What does this fold into?
Amino acid sequence: MKKIGFLSFGHWTPSQQSATRSAQDVLLQSIDLAVAAEELGADGAYFRVHHFARQLSSPFPLLAAVGARTSKIEIGTGVIDMRYENPLYMVEDAGAADLISGGRLQLGISRGSPEQVIDGWRYFGYAPQEGESDADMGRRHTEVFLDALRGEGFAKPNPQPMFPNPPGLLRLEPFSAGLRERIWWGSGSNATAEWAAKMGMNLQSSTLKDDETGEPFHIQQAKQIRAYREAWKAAGHTHEPRVSVSRSIFALVNDTDRAYFGRSGQEQDSVGFLDEKTRAIFGRSYAAEPEALIKQLAQDEAIAEADTLLLTVPNQLGVAYNAHVIESILKYVAPELGWR
It folds into this structure.
């Protein structure tokens, strides 16, 4: 059995060809798609976070709204860039969203990726400390966030408060028990996957990672997952971790599917550079008739290693079509591969 959810990047554009022409369109359709996915029997509704872009950015109002409109589906991010975050304020936002959803939040966070502007986190008021890189800063913010999620008091109370305090040091409120174990780290390398395991976070691995061996993407990603699990075991954590991978997968079951994705031209991995130093490998997309798609996916070692699969959806094609994309995988593909 495998949990299957969707991952939306939340794009919008004023183009007449787009079903999402404004930020409001994206937000409201994201809620509607989560509701539809739950009705179809999908397990998760996840959203990407980008700043300074015509995409979803501030996740917690959306997560809370989805939580209020649904009752079963997991609600998450993939990922929040921790270079931009005030970790203590984020604890409050995450706690509130988790309580509204009844404990269904699965929060994916990370160091982030190249963004729309240069050093965008500086506009948010953050800068690396002396000797730090921006990645170091993101991990430092993460450690503060994880520590505060434990719910232990750390702030000295006012001796003359406006309202009575409980005894001892005060913690951030609202506190949501169990959320600490539902934090995921989006990892682009084996080393950061091992760090995530040490910190007791679940692992999110997307459709790109550092090209560390020159092997096909799915093989490198499977090795990353195995290294993560070994590091988790070595760290001595007492609960089982979770691992997700994301993929663009389209079952071609009607003429609309074939028109959109029948000639995707992305049947091979590709290699590029995220910056002048980082060579990355980008995983292929899958688009085929169900029978052929099943055979292709059965060869993907990383999907086999993961317990959760996130389907990246073309959100600009609208709620109805994206619900169809999800349903096609759940109906025609997942049962044949033993995912259901």
The two ends are 5 Å apart (CA to CA). Residues 217-235 form the longest helix (19 residues). The mean pLDDT is 95. Residues 2 and 307 are 5 Å apart (CA to CA).
